[in-house]
Amino acid sequence: MTQKNVYRKLGITTATLLLAVLVWSFNEDLFQISKNLDVFASVYKEVNINYVDDVNSAKLVKTGVDAMLDGLDPYTEFVPESEIEDYKLKYVSTQYGGIGASIFNRDKKVFISDVFSGFPAQKADIRPGDQLLKINDIDLTGKTNDQVSQLLKGTKGAAVKLLTKRDDAAPVEKSLIRDEIKQPNVTYYGMVSGNMGYIKLDKFLENSADEVTNALVSIKKNNPQGIILDLRSNGGGILQEAVKIVNLFVQKDVEIVSQKGKIKEKNFTYRTVSAPLEPNLPLVVLVNSRSASASEIVAGSLQDLDRAVIIGQRSYGKGLVQQTFTLPYNSLVKITIAKYFIPSGRCVQALDYTHRKDDGSVNKMADSSLHEYKTKNGRSVYDGSGVYPDIMIKQERFANITQALVGKLMIFDYATKYRNTHSKISDALSYKMSDDDYNDFVKFLAGKDYSYNTNSERLLTSLKTEATKEKQFNEIQGEYDILKNKLMASKKNDLQIHKEEIEQVLENEIASRYYNERGRYEVNFKYDKELAQAVKTMQDKNQLAAVLKGTGEYKVIGKPQLAAMALKKTDKDKGIDDSDQ
């Protein structure tokens, strides 16, 4: 036998063995799937038949499916038929039939929290702070938010009867006609200081790109000096909408994002498909730690292409793509099918769900494992940790007293009182709370419970606990009492010490009572540090050019900050948080 024939037979034998292994492996996989499904069905059957109490079969199965998916990532989820409509509102479209108001529960009572402009609730003079007593003669006492929301929603054009109460006045019955409620993706747009155009995009659902386009067209009529796209606290949504929005500022046929997963047929590269609406004006994108997914595609790709300056805090770090699959009986499952990669080649995913710790917790990408990539102009950027801003702005937390006043609804209640006793205020852009109004708020708080603990008080309590354990408290009690009394005396002045930020949240809530969501934005413009930096950067042509060309300190984005973040841990104890993650 010739050597050639030997090699030929060896090749055939190897191929046959390989095919046999693949067939065995495939059959083994099928066997394991069949076996585990049989075990699951058998357990469910025996529990359903033999368990001592009645079981909710639908709930039992959902619990089992949820537990199965829980070991993957938080974005892979099962949606039963009963939750389909809520799912669509959250991830697909914001349209539904209703009255245009949101509600909350308080002491087993239902109150209006917000009213949307131009919808039935506002037209019927329903206001935040009004109590909802009945809907179509159904008493709401003790009902959950979900139950009340279902009663408010219905077919467009259908009547709904509400019994409402305001302050101590007698209840009033109001008849409304449900309308199609479409909450916009773009919640605000207009001109801000420096003749800059400003667009606030809250989510990437249906038509978000169209809404941004319309906002940009309107803004361009004012000949703006630059554009600010605000993606702060935008958790993302539809990937294709993100690509369309980037295309407004980037030339045709530019790669924006690619998705890569296990199934090659689902791998895809998205490119811009048309000429941009605004390719030249200076552009800033605002992000924070709650900007995720599609927000990071927009911010990250514009950064990689050196088209925009990113300002704010590090984004969340979600670089995963989901797809929904229809299941029997009008249910569905949403599955993570790929990771996405922006133009430089980096993936922003910050958590590794594949390699969990023994206790099930998830690892963050270690600084040492991050890889360097280059933007179009050669700036260094890094994967595995969200999108780092070109210009970092520290996120300052409100003081404990401010958080307590908000959390215990003191701010909300005072705004309700203020609206019911003041027929109007100045426009939101110029509105400023007077000293008399603030003093009135302080009087309003008298006798009300808005107790809170400062960090110093918590440390002092911890000291007492440890000293007591070690039987040393008696020795330090004198000093402890002196410190405690000093802290209490200082705490009494917190309403004046933190007056500026308390006024800020009061103005925000009061302005919303007269001008709804638009009022919240406009009254806060004067306090917005990221917005101020955006205007300043676009007005400073030298800084703008330095950032986009990667000159000096702007040559490297992200890596130096990673080490610095650890050093700033003590800032968090002082109420300052760079990442909030």
Automatic annotation (TrEMBL):
Which SMART domains does the entry mention? Answer: PDZ, TSPc
Any single GO molecular-function term of the entry would be:
serine-type peptidase activity
Q: Name one GO biological process term.
A: proteolysis
Q: Which PROSITE patterns match?
A: PDZ
One Pfam family of this protein, by short name?
Answer: PDZ
Recorded hits in Gene3D superfamilies, A to Z, give: 2-enoyl-CoA Hydratase, Chain A, domain 1 (3.90.226.10), 2.30.42.10, 3.30.750.44
Give the keywords, sorted.
Answer: Hydrolase, Protease, Serine protease
List, for all copies, the residue spans of the domain called PDZ.
Answer: 88-167
Give the similarity note: Belongs to the peptidase S41A family.
GO CC, any one term:
outer membrane-bounded periplasmic space
| InterPro entries in UniProt | ClpP/crotonase-like_dom_sf, PDZ, PDZ_sf, Peptidase_S41A, Tail-specific_protease
Name of the protein described by the UniProt record: PDZ domain-containing protein
